[in-house]
């Protein structure tokens, strides 16, 4: 049984990862593929020379889901003179870009995991350095999140402080051996499936010999009452409960005495 439950735990990781049920952490905080494409466009910079190329670059900024400050400033630039448009593209957009990058970082605060992401995002926000904002979004967050995910998964393996049984243990070990994306999917979704498997497979504890069954305590169907277990007067024995020979004889003897 334990081997089968462990196999179910591994299947959890395979299914969750294969079906894409894990939530991308970047997407969860607004860094969708579209916004990432917008960020890459801005970071690549402008290399044109003609008025048409200047205008086309700003229009491309607006075509992507950019941040609110960048969108507002780009809209104003397009509505202005060609000189104002060129000044915007040649560096005027940077201040708006920096504010939007900071806003993107701030969105991570409420959902930050501990200890690595939480510490990093607080440090980046406190620094106020635009380059720190961009570095956090480009790679810092992913590295910190992976460290937190691995720490959380290690706590779920057998012997850890957050384990629930063989299914979670097997799923956590499989996730730790997988890709960062598979591990993230396990933390966000898969662990709860494995926990449910463990909860559904908790064995029923039999009534041990010599354990008194108190008056009024119902013996549920399927609960084995071992020989020699004293069943107290008034204890309802439910239909289907296998009462073994010693306990049955004790009940009969008491009835005859009465």
Oligomer: single chain
Beta content:
under 5%
SSE class = mainly alpha
Report the strand count.
0
Provide the succession of SSEs: HHHHHHHHHHHH
Q: Report mean pLDDT, rounded to a whole number.
A: 79
Largest sheet: none
Distance between the termini: 46 Å
Shape: elongated
Instruction: Extract low-pLDDT stretches.
Output: 16-22, 237-258
User: Number of helical runs?
Assistant: 12
Fraction of helical residues = 55-70%
Radius of gyration from CA coordinates: 31 Å
Describe the protein's architecture and organization:
It holds the Pfam family ALF. Residues 203-239 are annotated as: Disordered. InterPro entries: DUF312_ALF. This protein has helices spanning 2-19, 25-28, 33-44, 51-63, 68-79, 82-92, 94-106, 116-127, 130-154, 166-176, 180-200, 245-257. Residues 16-22 and 237-258 have low confidence and may be disordered. It has a domain at 205-258. The chain is mainly alpha-helical.
């Amino acid at each position: 049984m334990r081997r089968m439950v462990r196999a179910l735990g591994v299947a959890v990781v395979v299914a969750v990862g294969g079906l894409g049920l894990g939530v991308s952490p970047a997407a969860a905080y607004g860094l969708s593929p579209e916004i990432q494409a917008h960020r890459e466009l801005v970071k690549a910079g402008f290399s044109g020379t003609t008025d048409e190329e200047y205008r086309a670059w700003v229009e491309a900024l607006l075509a992507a889901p950019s941040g609110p400050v960048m969108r507002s400033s780009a809209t104003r630039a397009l509505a202005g003179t060609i000189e104002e448009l060129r000044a915007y593209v040649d560096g005027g957009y940077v201040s708006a870009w920096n504010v939007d990058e900071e806003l993107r970082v701030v969105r991570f605060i409420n959902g930050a995991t501990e200890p690595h992401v939480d510490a990093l995002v607080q440090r980046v926000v406190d620094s106020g350095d635009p380059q720190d904002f961009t570095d956090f979004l480009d790679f810092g967050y992913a590295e910190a999140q992976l460290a937190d995910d691995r720490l959380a998964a290690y706590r779920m393996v057998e012997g850890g402080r957050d384990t629930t049984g063989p299914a979670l243990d097997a799923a956590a070990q499989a996730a730790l051996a997988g890709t960062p994306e598979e591990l993230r999917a396990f933390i966000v979704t898969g662990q709860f499936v494995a926990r449910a498997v463990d909860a559904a497979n908790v064995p029923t504890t039999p009534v041990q010999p010599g354990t008194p069954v108190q008056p009024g305590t119902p013996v549920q169907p399927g609960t084995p009452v071992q020989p020699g277990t004293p069943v107290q007067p008034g204890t309802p024995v439910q239909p289907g409960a296998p009462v073994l020979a010693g306990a049955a004889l004790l009940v009969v003897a008491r009835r005859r005495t009465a």
